[in-house]
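Local shape tokens:
==================
===
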Amino acid sequence: MQAPRPITADAHSPALLESLLAVHSAASVSWLADAAATAAERALGALYSLLYVSDASGQLAGVRPASRAAVRALARLNQALDVDLTQLKFDPDGLPAVGTALAEGRAVSVAELSEAIGLGRDAGRIARAQRQLGISAVWLSPLCWNGESSGTLVLLMGIAPADRMEEAELLGRHVAVALGNLRQEEAGRKRGEVDAVRWIYDQRRFMEELEQEARRAARYRRAVSVLLLRVLNIEELRRRYGRFLGDRVLRHVANRLEDAMRDTDFLGASQENGFAAILVETDQDGAERAEERLSAGLRSMKLPHTDLPDLQIELACATATLPQDGESAEELVAAAESRLEGGRLLQQDAASAG
């Protein structure tokens, strides 16, 4: 998954930093439009915010926000301009300001809304409506990341301080990353293979892979091991920091595990708060070493793009190996589950005694 450049509290306003958490936790493109509008209004002082994303033909299409409050605000704007802005679809190459912003990846300011989006109406009438609404400038913040453009965020500004343009660019980059992640997640759901929270292969796909590896290992008399890892205190983290931050913890653990695994291994989701790895051609000793390697550094982590202190993660790990612990995928998982549960109970007893 993509990630924007690090940000620090002394570099940007606290309101923007707080709003970015909502941007990255948006569950759909409609809610992303809401989160982007909230960030633009609270952190940048925008009167209105419009999200336009690229479709398969390269045109920019408006996104209707999900919340009633945002819909009501846009209804007032639509009434004043006599056009439904979320239904617009236009070619960015036909608008020089939009083309410049997308090509250069930087925010630009224009005086008229008709320069920013393809309204196809009388420019004088639009200008008069802008004045009545108190819109002094229109900012175009491109959705650009890693050299790719996925749309633009149109900010209708009352007061437009030039020193906030950098933050408008930053907001656009974060919205681009969030949009890219949502699209990857949706593509995975359509394939029926990716877990919606952890953004790794789901449990069904994991079991299919493990069944294939178990048959292959038995045929060629080679070892294969499975490793299970659970985040025991994920519900506590969700209660303390919120559901979406708890989900980010699971995604971050998944990223760390993927980075530490060999190319031949396979990572998937396990139950609601865990992970499962297939360790190809790995015997019992190798599985124990892999457990130490994969769990190293996970018990304390710093979530990127937040100002939270290090989060303490309670983990339980267990392994099982074919043929010692079973001859099928189900037997391997059951053996590892049994050991993991036993280890978890020992941890609880130790904590109680301590």
The domain at 203-353 is CATH 3.30.70.270 (Alpha-Beta Plaits). Residues 20 and 39 are 7 Å apart (CA to CA).
